[in-house]
Amino acid sequence: MEPTAKNPDPHHIFIDEVQGHQRRWLKVIQFTNSSTKAAAIMLAAAIVALIIANSPAFEPFEEFWHTHVVVGVGGFIGEMSLAHIINDIFMAVFFLLVGLEIKYEMTVGELTNIRQAALPIIAAMGGVLAPIVIYSIFNAANPETSHGWGVPTATDIAFALGIMALLGNRVPNGVRVFLSTLAVADDIIAILVIAIFYGQSPSLMWLAVAAVVLVALVLLNRAHVYSLAPYLLIGCLLWFAVFMSGVHSTIAGVLLAFTIPTGSRVDLQKFMTWSGDRVREARDSFVESQPVVLQKDYMFTVSRLSSVAKQVVPPATRLEHMLYPWVYFAVLPLFALTNADVSFLGGDVLAMVSSPVFFGVFFGLLLGKPIGILLFSFLTVKFKIANLPDHVNWIHMLGAGILGGVGFTMAIFVANLAFPEAVLIADAKIGILSASLLAGVIGFVFLFMQAKAAERQGISYVSASLDDVVRQTAGEEAADVADDLVLACGDDDVVDDVREVLEAEGGVAEFVIHETARAEAEEAEDVTGTRP
């Protein structure tokens, strides 16, 4: 049984005096692992930025973010505004997390099985090409704006999956997996677009320095160095070299992610035997009548066990768990606060919403994304390259495709790189914000309508997992209801079947539960695994 906020210590490991602390801490952990909460906080930050931008406080607000921070070491003095620190340094940390997600999917996730990943990968390509076509229809003839074709191609995974998480267990896990894998493939394309098309003229000398630093990181990986500290320290040098080269510095985060080991330095088979011996050794040396501070043998054995157990977790996984709450509850809200500041005061609003940049970005996201995703998905299924995920129909796919039009973070990031003029950036931001809002609402409505149809049939899609891994799929939030719904059926055979399938699948399994008129599950049918 896993700890919950209501029952933080199901195995009664901790003393009674700290149960309240454990309960509060688990609530914090659950909050910071929630895609829905992260999306809500980013949305709130964007709304605050819009309100300030259209109030008398805008000028001092803008001046604050343009405050320069000066750092000097010896003869070297560097300075950067707070806004650039967020966009160039903090967002590099975001891209580091994105890179870790991509590496996970390519090593053990959805992108390892090419046939299984074919549908979202091909759909992502369609979701990039169609917006480019639509944007070019409005801007191809204008050399000042034609370069912004990359703006409507990106999907904001946090917002899209946060919206989907609101539907809970009424949406099949296959939809979440499809959208998350599509967003990962979309991120890969966006990273390539940023690196190739939206950097300055590169400095060959600094590119060479970056290459040398990258080789050093690869050699660390090859030498089986599993401590995070060397990678992070050398990663800072990589960031500086990429920043000085003219290629956008956030690319350094992705490159660093791909050098961090995903394996464990501990032999897991031998660890099982060794840890069992240490547990028995600790049990033999423990004296109940003595204070723990006097039991040196016991503390030494437990400390050894704890030290080695921590090293079982791969460095990439440790870093991902560390970064997730900071990125989604600090970095991205700060980015939204500093970049969603579209001011309508003293400007020609009609000119803003009638500019070719606005039309290209707005219709590229709102129409181009779902059209490209649905068209390429249909062709993929039609030509039998891949099948729809289990329990997923075309209404689900349409809803997921529309949610793909939620561009926000990545789209605003590309807009800042694509346009040199503030007026064009503002036009693009208005298109991004309005299209993302409409795509989020319409996509939610489509999926909600399908969910209501499933509810009328008494169907729930329950995702359950033995893994304790925070994924961006928002699958963990849906999995939180698994135990309650399965146990509510009151059938021990069903509970045993659930646990048997979870152990066999070793990952996330989905159960289609048909409820009675009293909304209580009676049986679990069509048990299928959705992630190996």
List the helices and strands and how they pair.
Elements: H1 19-32, H2 35-53, H3 58-65, E1 68-73, E2 76-81, H4 82-107, H5 114-139, H6 157-165, H7 173-197, H8 204-222, H9 228-245, H10 251-257, H11 268-285, H12 296-312, H13 315-339, H14 349-352, H15 356-382, H16 394-403, H17 408-418, H18 422-456, E3 459-465, H19 475-479, H20 482-488, H21 492-505, E4 508-515, E5 521-531
Antiparallel strand pairs: 1-2, 3-4, 4-5
Helix pairs in contact: 2-6, 2-13, 4-7, 4-10, 4-13, 5-7, 5-15, 6-7, 7-16, 8-9, 9-10, 11-12, 15-16, 15-18, 16-18, 17-18
Explain the overall architecture.
By secondary structure, the chain is mostly helical. The chain folds into three domains: 41-199 and 248-264 and 313-457, Na+/H+ antiporter like fold (Up-down Bundle), CATH 1.20.1530.10; 266-311; 459-525, no CATH class. Helix content is 65%, strand content 7%. The chain has 21 helices and five strands. A hairpin with a 5-residue loop joins strand 4 and strand 5 (521-531).
